[in-house]
Recover the amino acids of this structure.
């Protein structure tokens, strides 16, 4: 039994949900916001090769400074919404608290703005979608080409030939012409595999997604991952600066991104927030498609004080799409990794547990030395996943809280408390990105591994419930903290989850449940 949370990971995969402070005139039951990065160090993408294939053809041109010959995206029709085939959320994700604000709104870009009141030196291009002939303005930001307009392609299901899962706001074609279309998540990722097999069947079923996801984008472009959205933020240096994202009169659109307040449609069929909020999909889902939520990015010109925040949204809702070109940063001479630029020294070593002779790799991160492997010392009330010794060899043992606190660690080592876990997350760039940097580079579900940038090598060991059942191997890593909750019945824990960026302290769990142990010195 858990004190504060049941298995609510579907709504906090990589986000620390901070609520919804919209007015009562615009209720929504399916959105959740993340907290804004507490540090100025959300990382850019890894340098692995990105490739894509597709059945349709698109043409793009680039490198016009401050000029664009693109035309507005056109809409061919409005459509009716059919919710019968869409997965519904079994519970709402809602909070009355306001979105968390960063402690500082310092504008600290890696590259200077390319647009001011009087000049526009941004590097623009155009993209022609040969499926329907529409032309879109594009802009290069930090070495990556982004669409500078919202996608407006009419997504038609093959069995009916009807566009039943993308919409014009309030079914008005004029809104599609001005703002682009709104897509359900299953349309955005092209679950029907009209253009790519990478997300086939992933709209609402358990599946494996192959990244990058072309989705409804033209060939050679894809639906951005949450890490790619973070990379964009890292380059321009801020979430909460209207001058970055919005055009006049709200801001100066300093990088030519031209965020458009398109509003959205919830899974109940109601439209909200046009001219106030834009919601764009990411290609990341919760628990491989079983969950009802997918990652979403919120640009807000009013309720959230001109901010850009990460959150999630019900897959049956309809949101905008901004496509990102399938290419690596070709010239990163002016782009720095905001975390590695801290010149953090990482020191590796090992220890021998004198009790049983096992050797553990260790790593120094910030001011603490951590075990870089899960503890595997056998004690009473410690378990191998599914009671199989092979899992202990791979993932270490799972311990109840009392055992973890009272002597599980070798001499001179201890179970970390909440403060130590928070220090770790802060050292690697903040809780918003910690999971991405602490997860091992293999072994996580759906190949959504981490970078293991700091050598922590978190593995998805799962956990054991108090009733003796085992859960979530491959998808979560739970680690005990030495802090405890009310009535001395509950212990605190830290968590990392596959596919997302963030990590955190996840409330209090019953002490008889069994989690992994990482000892610290």
């Amino acid at each position: 039994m858990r004190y504060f949370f049941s298995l609510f990971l579907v709504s906090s995969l990589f986000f620390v949900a901070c609520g919804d402070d919209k007015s009562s005139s615009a209720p929504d039951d399916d959105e959740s916001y993340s907290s804004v990065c507490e540090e100025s160090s959300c990382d850019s993408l890894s340098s692995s090769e990105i490739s894509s294939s597709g059945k349709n053809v698109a043409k793009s041109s680039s490198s016009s400074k401050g000029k664009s010959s693109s035309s507005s995206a056109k809409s061919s029709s409005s459509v009716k919404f059919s919710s019968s085939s869409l997965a519904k959320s079994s519970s709402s994700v809602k909070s009355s608290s306001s979105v968390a604000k960063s402690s500082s709104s310092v504008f600290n870009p890696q590259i200077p703005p390319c647009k001011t009141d009087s000049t526009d030196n941004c590097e623009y291009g155009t993209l022609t979608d040969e499926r329907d002939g529409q032309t879109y303005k594009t802009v290069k930001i930090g070495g990556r080409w982004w669409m500078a307009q919202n996608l407006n392609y009419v997504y038609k299901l093959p069995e009916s030939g009807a566009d039943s899962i993308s919409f014009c706001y309030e079914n008005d074609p004029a809104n599609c012409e001005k703002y682009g279309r709104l897509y359900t998540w299953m349309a955005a990722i092209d679950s029907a595999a009209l253009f790519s097999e990478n997300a086939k069947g992933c709209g609402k079923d358990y599946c494996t997604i192959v990244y990058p996801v072309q989705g409804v984008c033209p060939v050679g472009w894809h639906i951005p991952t949450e890490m790619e959205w973070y990379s964009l933020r890292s380059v321009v240096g801020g979430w909460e600066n209207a001058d970055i994202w919005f055009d006049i009169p709200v801001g100066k659109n300093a990088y030519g991104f031209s965020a458009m307040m398109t509003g959205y449609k919830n899974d109940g069929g109601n439209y909200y927030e046009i001219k106030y909020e834009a919601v764009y999909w990411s290609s990341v889902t919760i628990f491989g498609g079983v969950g009802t939520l997918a990652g979403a990015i919120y640009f807000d010109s009013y309720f959230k004080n001109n901010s850009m925040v990460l959150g999630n949204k019900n897959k049956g809702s309809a949101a905008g799409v901004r496509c990102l070109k399938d290419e690596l940063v070709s010239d990163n001479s002016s782009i720095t990794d905001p975390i590695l630029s801290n010149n953090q020294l990482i020191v590796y070593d090992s220890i021998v547990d004198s009790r049983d002779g096992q050797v553990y790799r260790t790593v120094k991160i910030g001011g603490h030395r951590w075990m870089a492997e899960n503890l595997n010392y056998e004690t009473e009330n410690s378990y191998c996943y599914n009671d199989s010794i092979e899992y202990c060899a791979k993932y270490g043992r799972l311990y109840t809280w009392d055992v973890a606190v009272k002597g599980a660690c070798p001499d001179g080592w201890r179970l970390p408390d909440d403060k130590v876990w928070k220090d770790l997350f802060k050292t690697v760039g903040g809780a918003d990105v910690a999971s991405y940097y602490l997860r091992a580079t293999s072994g996580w579900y759906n190949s959504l591994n981490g970078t293991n940038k700091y050598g922590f090598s978190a593995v998805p060991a799962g956990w054991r419930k108090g009733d003796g059942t085992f859960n979530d191997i491959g998808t979560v890593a739970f680690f005990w903290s030495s802090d405890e909750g009310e009535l001395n019945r509950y212990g605190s824990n830290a968590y990392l989850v596959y596919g997302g960026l963030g990590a955190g302290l996840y409330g209090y769990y019953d002490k008889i449940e069994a989690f992994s142990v990482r000892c610290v010195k």
User: Anything to note?
Assistant: Residues 124-333 form one domain. The CA atoms of residues 277 and 300 lie 4 Å apart. The first helix runs from residue 173 to 179. The chain has two domains: 124-333, 341-515.
